[in-house]
Amino acid sequence: MAAKATPTYTSIVLTKYSEVDDSSSLEVRRETEALDAPGTSQVLVRVLAASASFTDVMIRRGLYPDLPGKPPFVIGYDLVGEVLARGDGVREELTVGARVSALTVVGGCAQYALLDAEHLVVVPDGVETNAAAGAILGWLTAYQMLTRSGFEAGEGKTVLVHSASGSVGSALVVLAKSMGCTVFGTASASKHGFCSELGIDACFDYTADDVARRVADLGGVDAVFDGVSLASFKTSFKMLKSDPAGVLIPYGFYTASRGKSKGKLAGEFIKFMLWSKFKNKFSSKTITPLFNVVTLRSKEPEAFRADLTHIFSLIASGVVTPHVHVVMPLEQVQEAHTAITGGSVRGKIVLDPWPNGYDR
């Protein structure tokens, strides 16, 4: 197909790996070249909302594995967009005018995006655009850990969620409660009120409480969801019940990812692999592989689409409501990343590519 003409549009380009406080690594670029028309199995979308996450921060620091290339590239891990054009071989429901969600890894922070159609999921009419954008990464990660990681959430189960006020943590709390679980969590004292609003049964201040002792006094838990560090994993493992044996679901190394060294993060991962292999061999308790939603998507693309569709149905029916911390103009992505690294965000930051509207 021939290229499709378009007016000047905005994208946020990562020009180099750096710390978040180096604002020169992000360029607000005014694109003037015509967008390519979608090819086979592709769609062109107008981006209606993107999100900002700690994963984007890891990408900025050069700590995220398996990126499609080195900078410069458009940053942005996910988006909600309106289909403007579609190529051949695209699924029937991805019609022109439909709202769709995408886990892009990179490329989401722009006013337009050319996307492969395979993993796109339609956003139903009952789901507001910003809520959908706030749910894609964090809520899908949470839901799949609760259902596809080796632990089966349900009535009578007790779980502990670390960083319960964050994007993934808050989703874990709400979804686990909706499935009938008793939910404990950790968060700084200033965020306990927010966690209570989520419906958490008990929240511990990780800076002051002896969380392992407090959880042991409550009888232990069936599962712990932990994205903090190897040291945290080891403490979490001790909180698991022995009979029936509990499950530790790790999904990140937040502490190591705050550093500047890719070697430190790799070292943490290697130590985790050795420790978890030993524990899984000699203990009745289970440590699952480090969970990654993109890895699972590549193995089970149908499950990815089915699960995200289910999350949208829960939102549309009012069963769950993703918490959007704030909606910011796309060009303020630097401020969004700064807020995330400062630890002040509760839930998700959503980015608006069109704060002044657009012509249809």
TrEMBL record:
<dbReference type="GO" id="GO:0005829">
    <property type="term" value="C:cytosol"/>
</dbReference>
<dbReference type="GO" id="GO:0035925">
    <property type="term" value="F:mRNA 3'-UTR AU-rich region binding"/>
</dbReference>
<feature type="domain" description="Enoyl reductase (ER)">
    <location>
        <begin position="21"/>
        <end position="351"/>
    </location>
</feature>
<dbReference type="InterPro" id="IPR020843">
    <property type="entry name" value="ER"/>
</dbReference>
<dbReference type="Pfam" id="PF13602">
    <property type="entry name" value="ADH_zinc_N_2"/>
</dbReference>
<protein>
    <submittedName>
        <fullName>Zn-dependent oxidoreductase</fullName>
    </submittedName>
</protein>
<dbReference type="GO" id="GO:0070402">
    <property type="term" value="F:NADPH binding"/>
</dbReference>
<dbReference type="InterPro" id="IPR011032">
    <property type="entry name" value="GroES-like_sf"/>
</dbReference>
<dbReference type="InterPro" id="IPR036291">
    <property type="entry name" value="NAD(P)-bd_dom_sf"/>
</dbReference>
<dbReference type="InterPro" id="IPR013154">
    <property type="entry name" value="ADH-like_N"/>
</dbReference>
<dbReference type="Pfam" id="PF08240">
    <property type="entry name" value="ADH_N"/>
</dbReference>
<keyword id="KW-0560">Oxidoreductase</keyword>
<keyword id="KW-0521">NADP</keyword>
<dbReference type="GO" id="GO:0003960">
    <property type="term" value="F:quinone reductase (NADPH) activity"/>
</dbReference>
